[in-house]
Design brief:
The chain has ten helices and five strands; from the N terminus they run H-H-H-H-E-E-H-E-H-E-H-H-E-H-H. With 248 residues, the protein is of the alpha/beta class. It is globular, with a radius of gyration of 18 Å.
Length: 248
């Protein structure tokens, strides 16, 4: 964590130290460790009944948020970074805090998958806009909260974000939110449209193992939320065991 904050703050040590302290406090206040382990440890008999109840509640919250498959990890880029798929058109919740818990769970899981697969530290994010309507656009408070978490507490974790075939209605929304994104993060966002976007996706991904929104060339097994959350190890992406090309 210290080195990532130091790099993100371009060597400004006092500022990096302040942000490290803030992140340590945030992780404690937001119960990040419990969010990470809620599916694995929710029925651990070595824990108190009260703690088991807390973990079960978190698991239920995240499972509810994930019912539509709006966020999940599947596969890796060509260098072993986990791919985190976000599909705003599948938004199913109006609760900001539960949305953020759901986001943090998947960020932590993508990081764990990358670490297990390749020993790297960063993840790829693919944002697909199939089924998106302007009514799916999140409130500005959610946008700001998301960016606060990503930029403030997960610096140097995103290798690249691929915005795949965004519809016209997204462009007005983008003009507003891009002003809240720091320049270093903006440089890592790629709009993937047309042949140029296709070439970028094919350069970074094996498109035989990616979803259609990431240039995928074949039909993959449909995402199953409960299988991913309850049955798949935390350090594995969805469907990882069924495709030998995903195995370490």
């Amino acid at each position: 964590m210290p080195l990532r904050h130091y790099r993100a703050d371009k060597g400004n040590l006092p500022q990096a130290i302040r942000k490290i302290k803030a992140t340590i406090q945030w992780r404690q206040d937001f119960n990040v460790e419990d969010i990470k382990r809620c599916f694995r440890d929710r029925n651990d008999p070595s824990l108190t009944i009260e703690k088991q109840k807390e973990l079960n509640h978190l698991a239920e919250v995240i499972a509810k948020e994930n019912e539509t498959g709006k966020i999940y990890c599947r596969g890796y880029d060509k260098e072993g970074r986990a791919i985190l798929y976000l599909t705003p058109g599948r938004e199913n919740s109006q609760c900001e805090i539960d949305n953020m818990r759901h986001l943090v769970y998947h960020l932590e899981r993508a990081i764990a998958c990358t670490r297990h697969k390749s020993g790297r530290q960063k993840v790829c994010i693919v944002i697909g806009y199939q089924g998106f309507r302007i009514s799916n656009a999140p409130p500005m408070s959610v946008v700001k909260h998301t960016l606060q978490i990503l930029q403030g507490h997960y610096p140097e974790r995103m290798f690249r974000a691929y915005i795949a075939d965004p519809p016209m209605v997204f462009r007005g929304f983008w003009k507003v939110i891009k002003h809240f994104i720091d320049p270093a993060t903006l440089d890592k966002i790629a709009f993937c449209t047309g042949e140029e976007g296709k070439a970028l996706l094919e350069r970074d991904f094996d498109t035989n193992t990616t979803e259609k929104q990431a240039g995928g060339q074949r039909d993959l097994r449909k995402f199953c939320s409960r299988e991913f959350l309850f049955d798949t190890p935390h350090h594995c992406t969805f469907d990882e065991d069924s495709d030998s090309s995903y195995k370490k």
